[in-house]
Amino acid sequence: MVGWIYLCGVSSIIFVFSIFFFVFREGAPFLRDRFDFKEFFFSPEWYPNSDLNKRYGALALILGTASVTLFAMLIAVPFGLGAAIFISEFCAGKFKEALKITIEILAAIPSVVWGFIGLMVMSPLIIWATGAPVGLNVLNGGIVVALMSLPVIVSISEDALKAVPDTFREAALALGATRWQVIYKVLLPAAKNGLLAAALLGVGRAVGETMAVYMTTGHSVNIPFDSRFPLFHPLQSVRTLTATIAAELGEAPHLHPDPSGNYPPEAHHYQVLFVIGILLFAITFAINLTADLVVKGIRRKG
Amino acid sequence: MEPFSNAYSLETKGLNLWYGDFQALRDISARIRGGIITGLIGPSGCGKTTFLRCFNRINERYGNVSTSGEIRVLGKNIYEPDVCLQELRKSVGMVFQRPNPLPLSVYENVVFGLRIHSPWGSLPKAELDAAVEEALREVFLWDGLKDRLDTPATALQLEQQQKLCIARLLPLKPRVILMDEPCSALDAEGTKAIEDLMDSLRGRYTMLIVTHNMAQARRVTEECIYMLNGVLVEHASTEDLFLYPKDERTEAYIQGRYG
Q: Please, which residues have CB within 8 angstroms of residue A190's CB and are 6 or more apart in sequence?
């Protein structure tokens, strides 16, 4: 019996390592035979299917993910923080409960439904409002991903604000602070680690999101800058790392090596998708680890 | 600081207070004299803390509180519509049961009140420095802390924290200081230190202190109010209340037969 419980307990560790092992094993031949650091990270030329000249530059995909994530966070972090402050400091009783439950429901909406909304509702709206030729772009994907990462940002931020002892609020109020002064002079500084962790987890959510992003960003390999928009152009279509894996894995042939252990060039497409998987893994792992350390920081001090 | 012009700093007339359906204060009429220390005593749950928390209207934090009757602070009815809650709390400071310094440095704790009551950037550094030194000297913390004003206030010993909580009221020049069992989290030494501090502030502030410690009430207060079940039973000079209680309920409590 104890053995079973032990197994249940450590299963998550087993799963994580198994997944990492599997992804790494599939991507390893590419890393060994074909991987070129400069090409992968600095070239926007993604032509894994070209007959004559296969190129594996992931820069455009990385920037696609980065621009959607950045845009989503520009919306979701202030909005989520505002929502958390409202829930924790300005409302009580039934209304508070109703809001929290609604936000949980927001988290439960399937990714593909969000994609559907982006495709059918937001896209025509964006074309109408901005005159862009295509409604599937960074703006569309960013808004959808912002809405998808809101629940995690709101709930973690609210936990962080709730964890601030009430005596701090009372002390500041008794000195004659207004409600807003209590919030920005006492609560936000006291909860800053938790709030930072909330934002980081939102970033992790945005980087990893696949289906909704696949459906709403236009799926064209494109660097979303031009001379007028040096940061990124929200009305350009992009393709993200995650969407690339989802779209191409089904059509990339899974080939086996010849007896001497060498893979045919056509095999690299399948493998490079797993290298992208490793990259995503590394990004989300780093974000989660940072968020974790940041949260631990609170406990040590508190 | 000018002397207390009107004899009574805090007055209530027919004060009732309810938490939802529960009536915590019943028809309390009290007049608390300026410049002295008045103690609020009575068994747990008798409403002394609730009564104390009426005078800076901090009771209203909880949505289900309703009051009737009149409360006057320095002659001014604090329920009049033109009363600014922030200004009221500036002149009526409060010290809590557990020391609750803000999670800021010692220095920032002391100047917190000044900062929130002045427009941003309007306070010269020299003025703040002077206010910190004056307030910390007043509570006997300056010599011990002058070289570490930037340490987090939450890292101080409890006794120092409670003194700091008193010090941070002083730059706002309050006329009234409300204290809710300020020594209950402290040991005997800490209690003595806080009592000495209260003694040194005597005469310059009207102090109202809730205490469970009868010996403390006798040591530091000039007048005492005995409360029971939300009713003000007896208000007299400390000596009279402890030696010649008029009400037999007070007598039962004083002699330790009740509460």
A: A164, A168, B103
Q: Which domain holds residue A53?
A: 16-301
Q: How many inter-chain contacts (A to B, CB under 8 Å) are there?
A: 62
pTM here is 0.85
- Across chain A, mean pLDDT equals 91
B90 reaches A (C-beta below 8 A): yes
For residue range B144-174, list pLDDT tens digits in order.
Answer: 999 999 999 999 999 999 999 999 999 999 9
Instruction: Identify whether A2 is part of a domain.
Output: no
Q: For A95-110, how does the pLDDT look when each residue is reduced to its tens digit (9 = 90+)? A: 999 999 999 999 999 9
Our count of domains for chain A comes to 1
- Residue B173: closest C-alpha in chain A: A175
What pLDDT is recorded for position A230? Answer: 67
Domain that holds residue B203: 8-254
Interface ipTM = 0.91
A173 CB neighbours in chain B (<8 A) are: 58, 61, 89
